Amino acid sequence: MSKTAGILLPLCVAASVGLMPGESRAADSKTLALGKAVFETYCVICHGDKGDGKGLIGIVHRAQADGIVVHIYPRDFTAGLFKFRTTPTGYLPTDDDLMKIITEGIPRSGMPSHEDVTPAERKAVIEYIKTFSKRWQEEERGTPITLGETPKYVRSPASIDRGKKLFTLVGCDKCHGATGRGDGPSSSELKDAWGDKILPFDFTSGILKGGTGAEDIYRTFVTGLDGTPMPSYEESLSEEQRWDIVSYCLELMKGGHATAHK
Questions:
Q1: What number of H helices and E strands is found in the chain?
Q2: Is the pTM of this model over 0.70?
């Protein structure tokens, strides 16, 4: 059975429209028409009229590290791969995940905030985005991961020390480097799902695209970043081990942007 999934429909909503849990409903034509209009107004210049990321703007960001030049392109919605989610690796994001990205934008990526777009328009464009990939219609439903409160030991000296050892033990340093600067021995070889070069994150450089709070970093260790070499550690590390690596990552960032991101 495939480990990919689409949107988790809340039980209360499912009941209200006569659907069983796990089933989805295609958006009506009026919603899709509105979503298309919103997409063509705000999104098409980057993501293209086919949703394949080949809009007129082309490259949205150019990065360089240790002589390696990387070109960042807009998201290709036809692949159905999304890095920033609350769902496990291999699963599609929830509507709430997409709404968060559209509303807040993604730092350091070229994706701006669209908070000024009405909620109804944002919801409609989410439904329209789903028409670009068959994954939304064909795959199982996934369940968002549940994050509890950040343990009190996070960022303690003992947790940082354990996290530093784990950082090397599980191979984080191979990409991110021993000091978290993104200069590990494998850093020049990394590519994304489209075959484009990708740079591992430099923890000393500022905010992360997916959020810089302890909970955000922990979530990434659980979900992974689909479409990139960043894997999920949901099965290979215990909860405590994941939090310990979070402690070390926050230490690498020197706490400059380590406030919780809500």
A1: 10, 4
A2: yes
- Give the structural domain span for 134: 24-140
Provide the number of structural domains found in the chain.
Answer: 2
The set of residues, in sequence order, having a beta carbon less than 8 Å from that of 220 and lying 6+ positions away, is 208, 210, 230
**Shared-domain flag, residues 48 and 82:** yes
Task: Decide which of 80, 113, 140 is a domain's last residue.
Answer: 140
Q: Tell me, yes or no, whether 105 and 165 share the same domain.
A: no
6 with 141: CB under 8 angstroms? yes
Q: Is residue 59 part of a domain?
A: yes
The verdict on residue 108 lying in a domain is yes
> For every one of its 262 residues, what pLDDT tens digit does the chain have, with 9 covering 90 and above?
333 333 333 333 333 333 333 334 568 999 999 999 999 999 999 999 999 999 988 676 556 656 555 677 889 999 999 999 999 999 999 999 999 999 999 988 889 999 999 999 999 999 999 999 999 999 987 789 988 899 999 999 999 999 999 999 999 999 999 999 999 999 989 999 999 888 899 998 878 889 889 999 999 999 999 999 999 999 999 999 999 999 999 999 974 343 333 3
Which residue has 């199982």 as its token pair? 140
Q: Are residues 50 and 108 in the same domain?
A: yes
